[in-house]
Design a protein that fits this description.
heterodimer, A: mainly beta, B: mainly beta, four-stranded antiparallel beta sheet
Chain lengths: 117, 107
């Protein structure tokens, strides 16, 4: 069974940092691109970042470029999102999602990041 | 960047109704269009990929159509579990932009 489990969310002050993790199981992690998608409270989905299977290709939304860093460790079947210089508007549930044939076919349950003073 | 616009933003329907949601891209995206369903408090679920391909395990009452810039998600005979929010997403570019969502509510 394919599973993606996010962790690392919490409450952080503006300007602070947080590192999210996504633990994958049930599939060949090293064969898939993985994405981070976030959802602010009561709002829609926002694509945040993408990393290819071998980390050769990395992309960011303009809203997080220069502040967030995506990475992965295929030996540990894990994905990460280092978030620095956090802003109030970064408050959201963050999902990791597996990419297959261009679509996101499996999602984690999400982890809540709250940026507030 | 490619912008995705869904309509309507919300709709009210009854069990058994036929529901149609549209999604328009700001430029041609061929058939690189996906549809997701999100129930309250849950992660999104893939329904349709490549504009018209039904994801495994998704009921056949869901269907997708369109290409280029205009796309449609149709639910025939709406069921109680279908009351949710639906999002389109383009996968033409790596920046996988989502539409703003369409909330389907019970009439």
């Amino acid at each position: 069974e394919v599973q993606l489990v996010e962790s690392g969310g919490g409450l952080v002050k503006p300007g602070g940092s947080l590192r999210l993790s996504c633990a994958a199981s049930g599939f060949t992690f090293s064969s898939h691109s993985i994405n981070w998608v976030r959802q602010a409270p009561g709002k829609g989905l926002e694509w945040v970042s993408s990393i290819s299977s071998s980390s050769n290709y990395i992309y960011y939304a303009d809203s997080v470029k220069g502040r967030f860093t995506i990475s992965r460790d295929n030996a540990k079947n894990s994905l990460y999102l280092q978030m620095n210089s956090l802003r109030v508007e970064d408050t959201a549930v963050y999902y990791c999602a597996r990419q297959d044939r261009g679509s996101y076919d499996y999602w984690g349950q999400g982890t809540l990041v709250t940026v507030s003073s | 960047d490619i912008q995705m616009t869904q309509s309507p933003s919300s709709l009210s329907a009854s069990v058994g109704d036929r529901v149609t949601i549209t999604c328009r891209a700001s430029q041609s995206i061929s058939s690189y269009l996906n549809w997701y369903q999100q129930r309250p408090g849950k992660a999104p679920k893939l329904l349709i990929y490549a504009a018209s391909s039904l994801q495994s395990g998704v009921p056949s009452r869901f269907s997708g159509s369109g290409s280029g810039t205009d796309f449609t998600l149709t639910i025939t005979s709406l069921q109680p579990e279908d009351f949710a929010t639906y999002f389109c997403q383009q996968s033409y570019s790596t920046l996988g932009t989502f539409g703003q969502g369409t909330r389907v509510e019970i009439k």
